[in-house]
Amino acid sequence: MKTLKIFAASIVAATALFSFRSGGEWIMVAADNCKIYFPQRPVDQMGTVATDKGELKVNIYSYKAAAKAKDENLAYVLSVTQYPDSVILLENQDQTEAFFKNSVDGIVNNYHGKLLSQSNTTIQGFPGRQVKLDLQQGGAIMNIRFYLVKNTMYMLETITTAVKDPNNSMKRFMNSFEITHSGDSNQVGQR
Q1: 167 in helix, strand or coil?
Q2: At CA 19, angle to CA 17 and CA 24, rounded to 5?
Q3: What is the Cα–Cα distance from 178 to 71, expressed in whole angstroms?
Q4: Would you say residue 56 lies in a domain?
Q5: In tens digits, what is the pLDDT along the chain, a chain of 191 residues?
Q6: FRET pair for 88, CA 20 to 30 Å: which of 5, 53, 161, 185?
Q7: For residue 151, what are the domain limits?
Q8: Residues facing 187 on adjacent strands
Q9: C-alpha Rg value of the chain to the nearest Å
């Protein structure tokens, strides 16, 4: 009888573990001198944006989870923006602070969100910011990491419901990001 109870408890535990999408193979995207893992193959959009600072090359990799998917997040996004060399000057701490302040203010305004938290971060010695936004008056949370590597800004985003923030899939996505400096080749693979 004791063996039967242990067996039944094991089945219940296994069912609970496998009902979440925290495991499994994720898709690696290696592009723009970085790599990151998505839970599914992202859509890749490339283009340029005309600004008062000049033409900006923008690559966006995004995966929007289907409503029926058992994903902890609604969306995962990597945006890579290359600025003209003359715009980004990391020689001065004030210029770097101003760049991040403008970036954070811009994202808050574009999404009509409320800034919940902001902290400094780094990746491989390059400066960054970690930001949390309230969207839709508490209906959703956007977690963002900005990294500035020379004249390239990498922006990682996840959107989830407020009750699922934070979650393991968001952490896995954010923590899988690496700067590779391996050139401009684009690759997609599984992990």
Answers
A1: coil
A2: 80
A3: 23
A4: yes
A5: 443 333 333 333 332 333 233 346 999 999 999 999 999 999 999 999 998 878 899 999 999 998 878 899 999 999 999 988 777 766 678 888 988 999 999 999 999 999 999 999 999 999 999 999 999 999 999 999 999 998 899 999 999 999 999 999 999 999 999 999 744 444 444 44
A6: 185
A7: 24-190
A8: 30
A9: 19
Length of the chain, please? 191
In this structure, what CATH number is given to the domain that contains residue 159? Answer: 3.40.1000.10
Task: Tell me how many domains the chain contains.
Answer: 1
Tokens of 146: 């900005």
Dihedral angle over CA of 144, 145, 146, 152, nearest 10? -110
Any domain includes 15: no
* 17, part of any domain: no
Q: What is the rounded CA–CA span in Å between residue 14 and residue 28? A: 27
> What φ, ψ does residue 88 adopt, rounded to 5°?
-100, 115
Tokens 């203010």 -> residue: 105
Non-local (6+) Cβ contacts of 145 within 8 A are 121, 128, 129, 130, 131, 154, 155, 156, 174, 177
The label of the residue with tokens 């496998």 reads: 18
Contact 122, 146 (CB under 8 A): no
DSSP percent split of the chain into helix, strand, coil, nearest 5: 25, 45, 30
Residue at 22: amino acid letter? S
